[in-house]
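Reopening: structure tokens for the heme C complex, inputs below.
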Amino acid sequence: MMSRIINPGWFVFILILQVIAVTDTFSKSIARPEQGKNHFFTYCSGCHTLRYAGYKAVGTPPKEAERWFGKTPPDLSNVARVRGNDWLKSFLSGFYPDVHGKFGSNNHQFENVSMPNVLASITSTECREQVVDDIVAYLIDVAEPVRQLRRELGMYVVLFLALFVCGWFMFMRLSKR
Ligand code: HEC
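Re-run output (same inputs, fresh job):
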């Protein structure tokens, strides 16, 4: 009787969804994509576009940017998928002063990069690391819109599972009478 109601396949499916939901919720508590979005528009959108997220207008016209930096600042819609989480973090926190660098700085992750140290104005290392984490979280959301949806769905999955378990126990008790 019970095995017909609770199909093991469904149970495993729900369990997997829940694990994803919990890990996503956990990762959200460290990095905050909403703040990352604000930071992106403060520090990055002057040069970079996010075409897939629908922000075509922001960013310096490529021709002028090329004149200033020698390189066109690339569109960052996909960068989180191309470079990965760790690379981005090392890059954004990898700037160091270097008199031979183009803008008086250089980057451990990207030698002779044509991008200035745009987060240099944040003097506290702790604050800067938080800003980097937030921006990377935002860039991941932009590159993988499904993640955002999954996190929102995750809340409902947890709620559903709680109700499901309650209902199951009630059913068991009633059916024993
Ligand atoms: C003043 C202009 C400018 C600003 C502001 C700026 N960048 Fe850049 N960025 C560049 C340029 C130019 C390049 C190309 C560097 C090269 O290829 O040498 C670049 C490259 C990058 C790359 C490497 C992309 C790749 O895969 O090669 C990433 C990632 C990046 N920027 C992220 C950011 C983030 C995040 C911010 C905001 C915190 C930011 N940038 C702000 C000009 C800028």
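Strands lie at 95-97, 105-107. The first strand starts at residue 95 and ends at 97. Marking as resolved unless the reporter disagrees.
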